[in-house]
Write a structure and sequence with these properties.
246 residues, NDM-1-like
């Protein structure tokens, strides 16, 4: 029996309440986690899975949509706890997950240091130090745009760059579901581009949103915001209208 389970993880970050939504995909033979939260989130993941009568010890694979810390921070711990899992990443993003290349977020933050002073400089340096502590994880399988993975009714890889160059979303044709990662987020009930000021290529991010219109999407799951309530196509078109001059 195929199934999709949203893991709503609530936590405090920098004095603010936040929620992220990793996803578990399940069939008769597979239990696949899409993204995994910050370092130290393994207990939160296990608790959220248990609440849906699922056990992380049955995990077979973890798919990382991209290498931002809130998506891969617990990846190394997951691999250590459950060494049987296969970690999957987009081909161009994999070297950042494994630590072969310096995180693009570190490079982005370092590029701002010369223009910062005082508390802003201190916070940026603190952020860089935090990112440098993230433990790398092995990547056993890489994927590229339009690859089809055979599990859980089929999973199509959709390259959605912009937020990061190697960002991907996942399309489940059997249920017409798109797991967006950070390609889009939900803010005040509407779709938005995730932290546009930090997108590594905002124009690419907008093009990725436009590309999503090529898919019949009945359910849209955002890492920040969870399951979107409303007409997905209309919401994507409204988002694009806000960036029509981009």
């Amino acid at each position: 029996m195929n199934g999709m389970h949203l893991l709503s993880l609530s936590f405090e970050q920098n004095g603010h309440s936040q929620v992220i939504t990793p996803v578990l995909l399940r069939d008769e033979h597979e239990l696949i986690l899409v993204d995994c939260g910050y370092p130290g989130f393994l207990p939160l993941l296990a608790e959220a899975a248990n609440s849906q009568q699922l056990d992380l010890s049955a995990l077979t694979r973890v798919i990382a949509t991209h290498h931002d810390v809130d998506h891969i921070g617990a990846l190394a711990a997951l691999k250590q706890a459950y060494p049987q899992i296969e970690i999957i990443a987009y081909e161009s993003d994999a070297p950042y997950v494994t630590g072969a290349k310096t995180s693009l977020r570190i490079l982005q933050a370092q590029a701002t240091l010369a223009s910062l002073t005082g508390e802003e400089l201190e916070l940026a340096e603190q952020f860089i130090r935090f990112l440098q502590t993230i433990e790398p994880a092995p990547v056993e399988r890489t994927v590229v745009d339009q690859d089809r993975l055979p599990w859980c009714g089929g999973i199509e890889i959709v390259h959605t760059p912009g937020h990061m160059p190697g960002h991907m979303s996942l399309y489940l044709p059997a249920s017409q579901t798109l797991i967006a990662g950070d390609a889009v987020v939900i803010e005040d009930g509407k779709l938005a581009i995730a932290n546009p000021q930090y997108a590594l290529d905002l124009a690419d991010a907008v093009r990725s949103v436009r590309r999503l219109l090529d898919y019949e999407i009945r359910q849209l799951v955002c890492y920040h915001g969870g399951l979107f309530q409303g007409d997905v196509k209309q919401a994507l078109e409204e988002l694009l209208q806000r960036y029509q001059t981009t």
